[in-house]
Amino acid sequence: MLKIAVIGVGAMGRNHARVYSEMSGIELVGVADADERMAQTIAKRFGGIGYQDYRQLFDEQKPDAVTIAVPTIDHLQVACAALQRKIHVLIEKPIAFTLTEGQEIIAAADHAGVKLMVGHIERFNPAVILLKQYLVQKELGRVFQIDARRQGPFPARVRDVGVVIDLAVHDLDVMRYITDAEIVRVFAETEHRIHSRYEDLLMGTVRLNDSTVGTLTVNWLTPAKIRELYVTGEGGMFRVDYLTQDLYFYENATAHGDDWETLRVLRGVSEGRMIRYVVEKREPLRAEQEAFIQAIQKDTPVPVSGQDGLKALELAQAIVQSGLEHRVISLA
Q1: Are 202 and 218 in contact (CB under 8 A)?
Q2: Residue 41, number of CB atoms within 10 A of its CB
Q3: pTM across the whole model
């Protein structure tokens, strides 16, 4: 029986507690939150004991692993307290408030010899997983362009970061994940219309080292929630709907003509079939937590490492910098 705790039981943390409570072989021993009443309410609902002081939870309950879902600015402090006690850590994205703090968390995990996983949940969306499989199999041929749309209403819960760090970081990570390529250049236009301190609108472009071009349309200003990804290449275009976990393929009929296999030269683009793939739906958070637990139990690498989280944060901060300075940012 693996003993698990959750630190921070706001919108995301309470879902971590819910999923852990439903899993076999797991004992949710406690939750902690700055709002003690909230912690006790969530503990009563899903199990364990509610605490205001997470250090007290660590020392009294001695969990084997913990999910950290506190505000980003507190990630370093809470993560290091867990890692010093040799507790395995699943930390919500972004890994930290700054790159230096992210590096400190990674170093602390290495020193403690425990697992550190970053919660980039979109990697566990079944439609994204299937899309990556098709791209690995070269079903699309060369990839030309990736377009990400992540728009919706302003979330009152977010106070310490803007839309780039909170939302666009997902798409930057997914672009790296599905292409196995690195982003080497970014440019962004950002604005803040509602958020009092940080950007809440992003129009960005990125360049990957495999020559793929990416675009990012991200905001907290749209009254309808949109979560979509488009991948265009020689063979046509894939579309992912993150919310419904659907994957569609729009065929380039020219690329699939009788002479395509013989010539292997793209001579044009024309409308072809539209295919909606069968995707086995499941909750990405559950898949993420199962992967974390499996890595602990089998002592295997986590699927989203601290370095993955650090790279996503580096890219997001470069986007923010580009928007503020109105210039292209190149990355090593």
Answers
A1: yes
A2: 16
A3: 0.92
- Collapsing DSSP to helix, strand or coil, 252 comes out as strand
Q: What is the DSSP string of 2-56?
A: EEEEEE--STTHHHHHHHHHHSTTEEEEEEE-SSHHHHHHHHHHHSSEEES-HHH
Query: Residue 146 has what pLDDT?
Result: 98
**If the chain, 332 residues long, is cut into consecutive pieces of 10 residues, what is the mean pLDDT of each piece?**
96 96 97 97 97 98 98 96 98 96 98 98 98 96 97 81 94 98 98 86 98 97 97 96 97 69 58 90 98 98 98 98 97 85
Burial class of residue 4, CB neighbours in 10 A (0-12, 13-18, 19+): buried
Cα 133–Cα 290–Cα 29 angle in degrees, nearest 5 = 165
Which tokens go with 15? 């879902």
Residue 146 bridge partners (DSSP): 214, 231
Name all domains of the chain by residue range, CATH numbers in brackets: 2-114 (3.40.50.720), 123-284+314-330 (3.30.360.10)
* Helix/strand/coil (H/E/C) assignment for every residue in 160-210: CCCHHHHHHHHHHHHHHHHHCCCEEEEEEEEECCCCCCCCCEEEEEEEECC
- Up-side HSE of residue 276: CA atoms within 13 Å toward CB? 5
Of 203, 169, 214, whose CA–CA distance to 310 is shortest? 169
Which residues, 6+ apart, have CB-to-CB distance to 107 below 8 Å? none
- CA–CA separation, 241 and 205 (whole Å): 21
Query: Which of 60, 28, 62 minimizes the C-alpha distance to 45?
Result: 28
Query: CA–CA distance from 37 to each of 34, 55, 56, 155 (Å)?
Result: 9, 17, 16, 22
How far apart CA 187 and CA 327 sit, in angstroms, is 6
In this prediction, residue 272 carries a pLDDT of 76
